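Example 3.2
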Amino acid sequence: TSNISTSQRASNMSSSCADCVSTTSAICSVIGSDDKIGEAVSYLKGDGFCNLTDDPTQCSKSIEETLPFALPELAKLFTERDREYCCDLTSLCCFPPTTTTVHEANNSFR
């Protein structure tokens, strides 16, 4: 059995959830920035991806048309659903934003 109390576990989960959400936000800031999108497009159009395909010209065109739209949308989606993704991917944030233990709830009625 664990020596960690329920409130300590909730506190640790909350802190870990905050870390996950913060990290997700930082990643979204990067993938949604115009500079990084430009770098990704340049890299993928070259040796990073398109030059390895059967049709580098078509690949480059598709990258140029898709990434500048897709990356900001992905960043927006991940930001809007950060707690959900942290729960799904790491089991963090899998509790209501405001947690009240049964003991605390029972004591509030006395």
